[in-house]
Fold this sequence. Notes:
Elements: E1 2-13, E2 16-19, E3 39-43, E4 49-56, H1 58-65, E5 71-72, H2 83-95, H3 109-133, H4 140-144, H5 157-169, H6 183-193, E6 199-200, E7 205-206
Antiparallel strand pairs: 1-2, 1-4, 1-5, 3-4, 6-7
Amino acid sequence: MSIRLYLLPLERSGNLRWPKYMHWDRVPDHTNDVGETAWSILNYGQADWCIAAVEATDPVHAVLAAKADVIATPADLDTGVTNQRRDAVRSFMEEMGMPGNWVAATTPWREVIRTISGMALLGKRYDGIKAGTDPGAPSLGSMVRGNLNTQWRSIPQGVRDTVMEAGQSMNMALPEISDTDTVRNILKQMADVWGGMPVSLGLEEYNGGTSFAV
């Protein structure tokens, strides 16, 4: 058994959310596809998708990898995405409100996961700030989905201020953003600022400078 990473949707019941196809004791009546398998997630704020770290046996991995709405990463995260999977990764990211146009066939999966993690952490912090100051405000993910090419100057000032506050609180803020910068470029650059800092997925601390291992 090894820890594998998956990009997949979240199920929702009221305020509870958990990774699709997975078992969770808090929703025992939920039908799952892989039995009682340990998992931990990093989600994009209130958006209903996540990166899931799963203690996956070969049969569990086979089930998850076969799902049409799941992107399974290889065991070796330092391998490239490949031409066969590049478009699927790009499409998944764009659909979830993250720029995916930068992903190439040779981009290591480690870089893909770290960049997505940086954007997800920013989204979580943004949504957390808004929950305290403006309950009911749209999540960052829902606002930028379909609007990644919008220029910074077209974003409401309150949203811009919260993005910068979220970035500054996580040491991800950019030194300067021009009015003509797009949301696409800003999110990617802020995720890049995260750099080599560790990303905790609960089951494992995922650090870009080391191999992914328990």
